[in-house]
Design brief:
The complex is a heterotrimer of chains A (598), B (148) and C (187). With 148 residues, chain B is α/β, with parallel strands linked by helices. Chain B has helices at residues 15-28, 40-49, 69-78, 96-104, 117-137, and strands at 6-11, 32-37, 57-60, 86-91, 109-112, 146-147. Chain B has one domain (6-147): Rossmann fold (3-Layer(aba) Sandwich), CATH 3.40.50. Chain B has five helices and six strands. A six-stranded parallel sheet of chain B has the order 2-1-3-4-5-6, with helices on both faces. Chain C has a two-stranded antiparallel ribbon with strand order 1-2. The chains are: A alpha+beta (598), B alpha/beta (148), C mainly alpha (187).
């Protein structure tokens, strides 16, 4: 989860960069737009200025001409030469003005032509001026020449005036057009700037929210990390672990404080390099460790390794180390390693092994003693019995009544001894739990047991019914013995006048449903039930009947050694199962065997 | 029964058991010749030496000093000379696995030493009879397995 | 003319026998009265010839006949057990008496006399032997074997097997398998 969140954070970093880039771009665009608008504005202003200047110039021109005209007229009327003064100066000024107009009209070819026409007209007008003036000078005011020239002069003046008016109008027209154009774009400018501004602000706001969120998460993570680091340090100290990191890109080691402490040193008491660490490693393990470390550099992993170190105070400790590769988002590889001081575990383990070996030895001795005793006791017993039978066969006739009776008692006693030894031998054989468990057909084992008891079954006209058993993972000989003992038990303790009926049932159940189980290590169990209609037993003795040599009846009532059921219990225990019984005095007994399903 | 006598040998370190064995055969009154050996070493020596001495049935006790019955059995089974000899393990009780083990190693018969004489005689009679039946009917000796 | 004769039957019979065998060109030796040992190996036909020849004199080969009959009986039994074509439903007693042309009682007594065991036991012995060879040589299951040998159930076969050999068929299977393994990996 943390990984994904970090990923998101990273993505949002990108996201932020994009946002910022976008914002910057928009601002630049805005700047460009603003610049454009300002230029347009200044252009528009310039145009107005231009038209104004044209206006002014044209007026100037007209006024100059008028001045010339009025001066001329004045002179003609008053014959005062002072009226002629402005004529001269005006001429120069007129030319200047015309030139100025020419320049102003630079951009407008139509207007330029107009200016040229104007110039021509003005020249013409001025020429007429001169003519009329000359004529006036000669005193020929009343002449026809003068009048026609005067009228020509007036006509030219009018055409100049009209030309000027036309030019002004044109100029105005141009201005109007341009103003219309610029006003269009200018009117939308402020609004679009406004919208873009809003948009920019929105983006900024979003960015701010995102950044603050990220900062918050970062802070939280940092806090978690701090806590984690603290608890990690503590746990490292308590559990005697040390951490280290190997950075692949610069072949650098980092040791945690706890690692230094493991070595019996103060934190940061030496530079964390491999060679410095090697100083602490037991000389016998140095080569092997170096080999493993070299493999680690290549394979970028360190499976569990063991080695010893020797602290400066001489103590030898056993270390276990492990490292795993971690590649971060920028592709830097680090090996995160953990080293643990397992000296205690090793010591405990060694002690445990020792104790176990001792126990096993004892057990083996006991078992073999058991076995040998039972086995070797059989020999002399057998001899006794055989010789007794020889005596019976050969010399029974020669013996006195009491001798015969004594012999009979000897025979009975030795028979009892035999059955005791047989049962003990059986018991000691069930001791060996190093027999292998194998998948066995339990039906076959039951049949084999029934076969062994065939004679008794027939003799007592017993009926044995059974459910079908599945294959089970058991020790076959022992399960057969189990059936044998249970069935022969039921047969032995049957009611005198009733044919024994034995029902053997099979079921399975999950451990959690079996409340009678003392320990439920396994999940589910086979359940074998053996129900008989014999004499039963008092339920209060249910634990006793499974005890070794324990009997509920005297030997004169029923034969038997009291080992049979304890052998059953032993067999069941060898299989990690349990056996229990339910007895009804005078009605029968039910034995239940629980065997774990493997 | 058979025209020739049956050659019987027993290797058992126990004096009493050897006594029971020979007395039983005496009382059975079959056409038998019985030889007993005090341990595995004596038995193997006799088997190896004379070319004529090949018993029809060999009874082997398992627990013998110096050379156990099982070792004798293995050695005998490796030797082709004794292909037609029936080997009976004659022992006090052994575990089921041990009994099966003797069969696996080539024994034909396993006899648990009985507690009384009458049973011993019956068992020995059964062995000789069944062995003779195998002999006269040409049955496959490899499958001759009997447990009494 | 009347002649009174005194017979030395022993000498008469001995001579008859001698003549008969010399005639047949067979070497023989008297063991005791009524007991002849043939020095050569004789085939069935030759025995038959002897039988015929002596039969003419009213001399019956008792032992050989019995042995032959018992042998025939054994063969018939083996055939019955091993041959699958033999009809199941016919009782063995009926089958055998028909096959050999004698009453079952006679056959039964004769068999016991010669072999010291009953026909029933012999049948069981053969069946169990066959079972053993099937177990050892084939991969047949016990059920298949029981069916093949006309047992009413596997349990019946197992019981009979155990009663005859003292071990169960499964144990036998195990032992054969382990023997085979040992033979293949002699350590």
């Amino acid at each position: 989860m943390k990984g994904i969140k970090l990923q998101k954070l990273y993505n949002s970093e990108r996201f932020l960069k994009i946002i910022f880039g976008l914002g910057l771009f928009i601002v630049l665009c805005m700047g460009g737009l603003a610049y454009k608008y300002v230029r347009e504005l200044s252009e528009s202003f310039r145009l107005v200025q231009h038209t104004y200047e044209v206006h002014v110039e044209l007026e100037k021109l007209l006024s100059l001409l008028k001045d010339a005209e009025s001066g001329k007229r004045g002179y003609i009327i008053s014959k005062d030469s002072t009226f002629l003064k402005p004529l001269l100066t005006n001429r120069v000024a007129l030319d200047e003005s015309l030139d100025q107009l020419q320049t102003l009209m630079d951009e407008n070819p139509q207007q330029q032509q107009n200016v040229k026409d104007l110039r021509l007209k003005i020249d013409k007008s001025l020429a007429i001026f001169d003519t009329t003036l000359a004529l006036a000078d000669r005193g020929k005011i009343e002449s026809m020449e003068f009048k026609s020239a005067f009228q020509e002069g007036r006509r030219v003046m009018n055409s100049v005036r009209f030309q000027m008016i036309d030019m002004t109008a044109q100029e105005n027209q141009v201005l109007k057009k341009r103003r219309e154009a610029s006003s269009e774009s200018l009117s939308s400018a402020p609004l679009s700037v406004y919208y873009v501004l809003i948009f920019c602000l929105a983006i900024l706001l979003l960015t701010y929210v995102q950044i603050s969120k990220n900062l918050k998460t970062l802070r939280q993570k940092n806090e978690q990390l701090e806590t984690f680091k603290e608890s990690s340090t503590q746990s490292a100290m308590v559990s005697k672990h040390g951490n280290w990191i190997w950075h692949e890109d610069d072949n650098r080691f980092e040791f945690s404080d706890s690692l230094y402490r493991l070595l019996g040193e103060e934190p940061e008491s030496f530079v964390p390099t491999y060679d410095n660490f090697l100083e602490f490693v037991h000389p016998a393990d140095r080569d092997r460790l170096t080999e493993q470390m070299d493999a680690m550099y290549v394979k970028k992993e360190l499976p569990y390794i063991h080695y010893r170190i020797r602290q400066k105070n001489g103590h030898i400790k056993h270390f276990k180390a492990y490292a795993k590769l971690l590649v971060d988002m920028e592709g830097h590889a680090r090996l995160l390693g953990t080293t643990a001081d397992v000296t205690d575990e090793k010591e405990n383990y060694r002690m445990l092994e020792e104790k176990n070996a001792e126990l096993e030895k004892n057990n083996k001795e006991l078992a073999s003693f058991n076995y040998v005793a039972s086995h070797d006791l059989q020999e002399p017993l057998r001899k006794i019995q055989t010789f007794i039978s020889r005596l019976e066969d050969k010399d029974m006739g020669n013996l006195s009544g009491s001798s015969r009776m004594y012999l009979d008692r000897i025979k009975t006693a030795s028979e009892r001894m035999r059955s005791l030894i047989d049962d003990l031998l059986q018991y000691s054989r069930t001791n060996t739990s190093d027999q292998a468990m194998e998948m066995s057909d339990v039906n076959d084992l039951l049949d084999a047991a029934k076969q062994d008891l065939a004679e008794v079954i027939m003799e007592k006209t017993a009926t044995i019914t059974s459910d079908a058993f599945p294959k089970m993972k058991v020790i076959p000989f022992q399960i057969k013995q189990l059936f044998l003992n249970l069935i022969s038990n039921s047969l032995k303790y049957s009611k005198e006048d009733t044919a024994p009926v034995i029902k053997i049932g099979y079921a399975t159940a999950k451990a959690k449903h079996l409340k009678t189980l003392k320990s439920s290590k396994y999940r589910s169990y086979h359940i074998i039930t053996l129900e008989d209609n014999g004499i039963g037993f008092d339920q209060q003795y249910v634990d006793q009947i499974f005890e070794l040599f324990n009997r509920l009846h005297g030997k004169s009532e029923y034969s038997g050694t009291g080992i049979g059921l304890s052998i059953c219990k032993k067999i069941v225990e060898n299989h990690n199962g349990e056996i229990t019984a339910q007895g009804n005095l005078g009605q029968g007994a039910t034995f239940t065997v629980y065997l774990p399903i493997r | 029964m058979q025209d020739d006598f049956t050659y019987i040998a027993l290797a058992d370190d126990d004096e009493d058991d050897r006594l029971f064995f020979t007395e039983a055969f005496e009382e059975l009154k079959l056409k038998t010749k019985v030889d007993t050996f005090i341990d595995g070493v004596a038995l193997m020596k006799a088997l190896r030496d004379a070319d004529t001495f090949i018993p029809n049935i060999l009874f082997l006790d398992l627990n013998m000093p110096k050379k156990s019955g099982l070792d004798c059995l293995k050695e005998i089974k490796r030797n082709h000379k004794f292909r037609d000899m029936a080997v009976a393990i004659y022992s006090t009780s052994a575990s089921e696995e041990d009994i099966e083990n003797t069969f696996v190693n080539g024994a034909n018969i396993y006899i648990k030493k009985p507690n009384d004489f009458k049973t011993l005689k019956k068992v020995l009679l059964d062995v000789v009879t069944i062995n003779w039946q195998y002999h006269t009917n040409g049955l496959n000796r490899d499958n001759f397995l009997l447990r009494l | 003319m009347k002649l009174f004769l005194k017979f030395d039957f022993t000498r008469t019979c001995t001579q008859v026998i001698e003549d008969a065998f010399t005639n047949l060109g067979m070497e023989f030796r008297h063991l005791s009265f009524g007991e002849i040992e043939l020095l050569d190996q004789v085939s069935r036909e030759q025995l038959s010839a002897i039988d015929t020849k002596l039969g003419a004199y009213g001399i019956e080969i008792i032992e050989n006949q019995k042995v032959i009959l018992v042998q025939k009986l054994k063969d018939a039994i083996i055939d019955m057990v091993f041959n699958e074509d033999t009809t199941v439903n016919v009782k063995s007693s009926v089958y055998l008496s028909e096959k050999l042309g004698h009453s079952y009682g006679y056959l039964s007594n004769l068999f016991s006399e010669v072999t010291y065991t009953s026909i029933e036991n012999f049948i069981i012995l053969q069946k169990i032997e066959y079972t053993k060879s099937l177990i050892a040589k084939t991969e047949m299951t016990l059920t298949e074997i029981a069916f093949k040998l006309n047992y009413s159930s596997v349990a019946h076969l197992s019981t009979q097997f155990k009663n005859t050999t003292g071990i169960t068929p499964t144990a036998f299977q195990r032992i054969i398998a382990k023997r085979r393994k040992m033979a293949n990996n002699p350590i």
